[in-house]
């Protein structure tokens, strides 16, 4: 039972799904407007989580042959045969996505439903099928999945998007590449052997580290803008602490491009995003 639960956690990429869900709650938090009922916030969180889970499972379904060529992913359920790829799985994945979109449409509005759908479509189709094996821009455009989650949360408050959530969506767009390129630098040899054109593989670790630093500085600076658009000191503190830590580790990576510094920067990106989003949520709850 525990093993099955672990395999389901893996195939639906629920760790990533929870992060995407947090992005939606962050988008809701930074959007000015009337308070949203608690049960509606719960529905939003569940709809975004289900949407992200469907995209994660579709990603593993499509990439099972690629995953078999990489040490990091060769134990995934579709690779080992623990889960048998076939029409039943595809039907389940599509049903989960349809349920997520329907929940968003019924509880909120068409804008929320559209953003919930586009988040899954971007990761599952645009990134996984169209771009991943073709161009180093794969994760740049694929990163829109997190941005759509932010916009879904914002549209739950007001379908007419205001400046603050749009800025936060752009922050998420800028965040995803340095986050994933840091991991790709740490696993450079694996991606190269599998033929996946991640930026470190195409341009080299040193140049990739400089691009990572530029992205990091840009997203951290932009993350302060919502504080000028109505967010309070709690949000600002989260943006400053997390952003400062991420920039520090990105500078270190630029100076010492290699697996150890890259993995440290990868975890720093998670710290920065978590602090930013939790600070936004707490700021809204405490300061209104």
Can you characterise this structure?
- By secondary structure, the protein is mostly helical.
- Helices cover 81% and strands 0% of the residues.
- It is built from 16 helices and no strands.
- The chain has helices spanning 2-11, 14-30, 38-62, 64-67, 77-80, 87-107, 110-131, 138-142, 144-157, 163-186, 188-194, 199-203, 205-223, 225-228, 233-255, 259-287.
What tags apply to this protein structure?
288 residues; mainly alpha; 81% helix
Brief summary:
With 288 residues, this protein is an all-alpha fold. The chain contains 16 helices and no strands.
Give the terminus-to-terminus CA distance.
43 Å
Number of strands: 0
Total domains: 1
Helix/strand class:
mainly alpha
What is the strand content? under 5%
Helix tally equals 16
Low confidence ranges: none
Largest sheet: none
- Estimate the global geometry from the Cα principal axes: globular
Give me the Rg, rounded: 19 Å
N to C succession of SSEs: HHHHHHHHHHHHHHHH
> What integer is the average pLDDT?
95
Helix content: over 70%
Ordered list of secondary-structure elements with their pairings:
Elements: H1 2-11, H2 14-30, H3 38-62, H4 64-67, H5 77-80, H6 87-107, H7 110-131, H8 138-142, H9 144-157, H10 163-186, H11 188-194, H12 199-203, H13 205-223, H14 225-228, H15 233-255, H16 259-287
